[in-house]
Amino acid sequence: MVNIKLISAFAAALALAWNTAAFGKAIPGHQGTNLENFELGTKLIAKTVQQYHDIFYTAGRQYGIDPNILAAICMQESAGVNYSYREDGSSYPAWGIMQIEYTHEKSFAKFGLERTGVSWTLKDRLDPEKAVPYAAYLLSESLHRYDGDYIKMIQAYNFGDVVLNRIISAAGNKWLDERVNAAKYADNWKYNKYGDAKYAEHVLAYYSNTLDNVSAAVRINGKCVKFSDQYPIIENGRTLIPIRAVSEELGAEVEWDGEKRRVYIDKDGTEIELVIDSDEAYVDGIGYELDAAASIVNDRTLVPLRFVAESLDCGVEWDENARTVIIEL
């Protein structure tokens, strides 16, 4: 039985904010496809979707996806009316069941096994606490593949990367105009239509900026860094990053002492020592006070990026519009 947290007073405010409204022409962190022809936030998110705001927030935080985009996709997938039922007879939206049922059964099972120790089944696809994180994972893979282009990421969730890549390869910057002919780019597809050509428009019509987006991207020497199961997060204005994910890019070695709850970073003779949940750090034995402590999130050690990068003589900048930390070695 799915454990669902009922909406609170916050959800009442959420219902007002997630109403028909114009949110401008910007998606924080979006890069690439021009947004001029897209209408953002013109439709109402269903109350059934609002009930799962905590799942969208948590999954977005873990996989580096704007949770508002995630909620909009789930709204488009479920249309707010496709319901599944628990053992007690209560209903919940059937999130993203098409992708999992028809093309992702094996990868969905593996995803569950890696994260819970149990292979997830097709029945599990009806559980929003499982389907939504899986959707966030798929989206994070596409967002990295398309270098921060949310529009391509959204359409790839609908068409799949293979078909979308074929369209982009054939039509280049005019790929948006070619979506209506998507069926001809699919192998062994017997129908005249393939997916929803206007899927991105339909998704973004539900987009809002209600949920906090605490994710951040990292680029090192212009290259976007890929993370596996925990992306950088922003807390109190500071970016915390899974250190092992960028250690090779930075040319640093990382060691973890679980007994002492300490992480050691070594690069070209410079040694950094951080203690989990402590605002103290050491560089070559000299103590420093941090404005953000190292922490453990989803079994990954996250460290304050700017302190570490600057201690290793790397240039660090923050691009607010792209929500991206830029590091130059």
Describe the structure.
With 329 residues, the chain is an alpha+beta fold. The chain has 2 domains: 9-204, Lysozyme; 217-328, Copper amine oxidase-like, N-terminal domain (Copper Amine Oxidase, Chain A, domain 1, 2-Layer Sandwich), CATH 3.30.457.10. Helices cover 36% and strands 19% of the residues. It is built from 13 helices and 15 strands. It has helices at 9-17, 47-50, 53-63, 67-78, 97-103, 105-116, 128-145, 150-159, 161-171, 175-178, 199-204, 243-250, 305-311, and strands at residues 83-85, 91-93, 217-220, 223-224, 233-235, 238-242, 253-257, 262-267, 270-275, 280-283, 286-289, 295-297, 300-304, 315-319, 324-328. The chain has a 5-stranded antiparallel β-sheet, covered by helices on one side. A 4-stranded mixed β-sheet has the order 4-3-15-14, with helices on one face. It has a 4-stranded antiparallel β-sheet with strand order 5-6-13-12. Strand 8 and strand 9 form a beta hairpin. The longest helix has 18 residues, at 128-145. The termini are far apart. The model is unreliable at 1-16 (pLDDT under 50).
